[in-house]
Amino acid sequence: MKKFVLICLVAVLTCALSLCLLVGCKDSDKEAVLEVGGDVQLLDGVELDYDSMFFDDFTDGVSKDNWYIGKHSWGANGNGGVVPQNVNYTDDGVLVLTGNGEYYTSGNVRGVGQRKDGTLTGAALISKFVTGAGRYEVKMKILPRLGACSAFWTYAYDSETMGNHEIDIELPGGKTTGIISFQNVLNTNYITERENQSQDVSVSEVTDGKLNTLADGQWHTYGFDWYTVENGETFSGETTERDTSLGRVVYYIDGKVTAISDVFVPYYQVRLWLGVWFPNNAGFVGTANFETDCMYVDWVRYTPFKNQAIVEYAPALSGEMASDSEYPSAPVATTLVNKVANGDFEFAAKGATNSGWEYNIRVFTSEETNAMKQKIRDEHPDYSPSQVNDAYNELRKQMQGAAPSAYCTVSDGIGLQYSCGVRVTQIGLVSQIIDSIFEGSQLDFSFAAMGKGTVSVVFLGNGDDMVGEEVLTVDCSDWATFSKDFVAPKGTRRVEIEIFCTGEALTVDDVALRWGGIQ
Ligand SMILES: [Ca+2]
Asked: How many whole angstroms from 437 Cα to the centroid of ligand 1?
């Protein structure tokens, strides 16, 4: 018996020892392997050139020495371009890049592309210096709405060779699955417009579920390491022709590798770009169904690699740039972004129609049905039950056949202090959908109202299934302010604000859903 125990013990120890050796071996292997989901690290033999590092934390605003501010447009489908008015900074050194979506109506910003009304206008900085192989990093909060492309990229175009030397980190991703969301990021490198590799990466997959959405209102560091040559490869930088499999681009978020590309790696000097723009292409980044939101940048860093050849090139500027007087001259204060488009209803005074609000007719509640039938019975005591039903059905048909404008009015003079507001009567339903609000989002909902009804935030999940609801009840004869803080429940992917009347009328103004991100 003792002998048997001893044999077992020896066997267990031997197994444990060999397991340790195996694991140890694997661990040391892993340190040398650069893989998707692993930690970012430099390729063997490559060193960072700290002496030539560029770093900007925007503490003194936007440096005229370092950056151009874009004032032009690009993109096949037309937009308002990128404009200097959308570039700002805070007194604690955060660059604020504003994007105005389809529901922008305030009219102070004018577009410089096909759109002139301020809709689909973004913001971009373009480096005055040129860069090459090296480590590129940006600490930012992306603009968390669909339709706006938050991006960090390098770019040079050579019309003689049709060379398009470009490396992109773009959000939101999802174009390969058709589900555009901030759960994906796009990592793309090009050497010509057609020769590119685009990787549409699920952030959750590469972080083992630690990070599920990048629309979380938190700082993340996005970066890529651009190698023009790897071990065993040679490239002198003196020719514009080369093997398309040379070099490597390693993309990462918060130090975790999201994608690696070893084809179509650029090899020209480029400019560094940073910004938010509107591709106006639903299949690429979704539709910009919002009014205004922001991308925030804490800092940008470029650290060249030592001994990595590059084709020397001075990339032409691809459009007009802001004049010195158009640079932001004083810091701005930032507040939590109001996710509601045109919550003050003042667009009505300007004659705008594409405001984000929708006007519909809702179904009757059972209480309303009962009350209507009772009224018919009271007015016609001689009616049989089927005659009451017929009369009710006729009335319902009439009411539901009307135009929504019979029950939903947006106009001047009915809002707070005689401003513009919205009034809902009978079976009117005023609503607005707000995308990219995920579970755990901290929300502060508020509005002013008068009359009788409800104003709700409905939480929608996959397939727009309702996963929760916050209902605020209004019953007052004069204007009052209503507010409530809450956290988006599990499964939330977007929300809908719904305004119902439950009495004579409900008038609402200054609707705000302020988003504090996911804590
Ligand atoms: Ca108003």
From this structure: 25
Give distance in angstroms: CA of 381 to centre of ligand 1: 46
Burial class (CB in 10 A: 0-12, 13-18, 19+), 393: exposed
CA of 424 relative to ligand 1 center, distance in Å: 15
CA distances from 504 to 415, 426, 452 (A): 17, 7, 7
Q: Where in the chain is the domain with CATH 2.60.120.260?
A: 346-518
- What is the CA(220)–ligand 1 centre distance, in A? 36
Q: How far apart are CA 485 and CA 487, in angstroms?
A: 7
Q: How far is the CA of 430 from the centre of ligand 1 (A)?
A: 15
Q: Which of these, 433, 434, 448, 428, lies nearest to 345 by C-alpha position?
A: 448
SS3 347: helix
The DSSP result for 136-160, as a single string, is EEEEEE---STT-EEEEEEEEEETT
CA of 147 to the centre of ligand 1 (A): 27
In angstroms, the CA 25 to CA 42 distance is 21
- State which residues of the chain have pLDDT below 50: 1-30
Neighbours of ion ligand 1 (CB under 5 A): 344-345, 415, 419-420, 509
Instruction: Assess contact for 172 and 182: CB atoms under 8 A.
Output: yes
Cα gap 128→131, rounded to integer Å: 10
What is the reported pLDDT for 30? 42
Alpha-carbon gap, residue 159 to 408, rounded angstroms: 55
Q: Which CATH architecture has domain 34-326?
A: Sandwich (2.60)
Q: Considering the entire predicted model, what is its pTM? A: 0.91
Give the class (CATH, top level) of 346-518.
mainly beta
**What is the distance between the alpha carbons of residues 46 and 55, in angstroms, rounded to a whole number?**
20
420 alpha carbon to ligand 1 midpoint, in Å? 4
pLDDT tens figures, 414-455? 999 999 999 999 999 999 999 999 999 999 999 999 999 999
- C-alpha distances (whole Å) from 203 to each of 141, 145, 257, 260 are 15, 17, 10, 14
User: By the 8 A CB rule, do 285 and 276 touch?
Assistant: no
Where are the extended beta strands (E) located within 230-285? 248-253, 256-261, 271-277
| Phi, psi angles (nearest 5°) of residue 135 | -100, 125
Distance 501 CA to ligand 1 centre (A): 19
Kindly report, as residue ranges, where domains of CATH 2.60.120.200 are found in the chain.
34-326
